[in-house]
Amino acid sequence: IAFFKQKSQLFSRYLTTNIQPQLTTPTRQWAIKRYVLIIGLPVTSFLFYRLSTKSETRRKHRIVLESIGRAAHATSIGLRSAIDQKTSLLFKTEGTDEYTAALQASRRRNAKRFAHLCIDLGGVYVKIGQAFVRISKTKRFFSFQNNSFLQINLPEVIPVEYYEELQILQERALRREKGEIDTLFKRYFRNTPENVFATFNREPIAAASLAEVYSAETKQGERVAVKVQYSDLRERFETDITTVDKSK
Hints:
Blueprint: H1 2-52, H2 55-88, H3 97-121, H4 124-137, E1 140-143, E2 148-151, H5 154-157, H6 160-165, H7 180-189, H8 193-196, E3 199-200, E4 206-207, E5 211-217, E6 223-229, H9 233-246
Antiparallel strand pairs: 1-2, 3-5, 4-5, 5-6
Helix pairs in contact: 2-3, 2-9, 3-4
Organism: Adineta steineri
Protein name: ABC1 atypical kinase-like domain-containing protein
Domain ABC1 atypical kinase-like: 169-244
């Protein structure tokens, strides 16, 4: 028994010192190469992209990527709203109090989702929400077919829940990023606002969903109001309108 125990110890020691390194060394080398590829390839690609493309090209690429994310977000909210209303009305008889209560509750939830979507995405979505509110306030619409005004009740234009929830968009403006004004002025005037004007007050005196208004004084001494649109507004509007049009 002692003889076999001694032989087994020698054999296990042989495996540990000779065979195991032969098996693990290539595996470790491949693991190192794999990590280098996983980390190094994206970093190298990013550096190559930054060095080989112009800033204007990178800006357009960023807008396209952002538009994809915005479209996906809007689509997901639309699907959630449709599923919410369908599931809320399951096994309920139309015309009953239970059906009406479930429909109103579902519309309220969906209206809040749509209002928050407009706030998050801004731009054309805010304008669409504001248009819904304005349409809801208008009770008389001109019909070109009948050449006369038509009286339309509010729920026929937009559910009252949407009208109430979208009120928050009436005074809503987009969020301006830090340094955005300087970026816009350098893009179009190759200079900062303080160098274009004699004085430029960076605190906006008015704001809207598409632009902000600033007070300034020209180098000739004239007091003026400067309307500064939000960055990438045109490109974002084009992608947003395309998204809304395709979702019809």
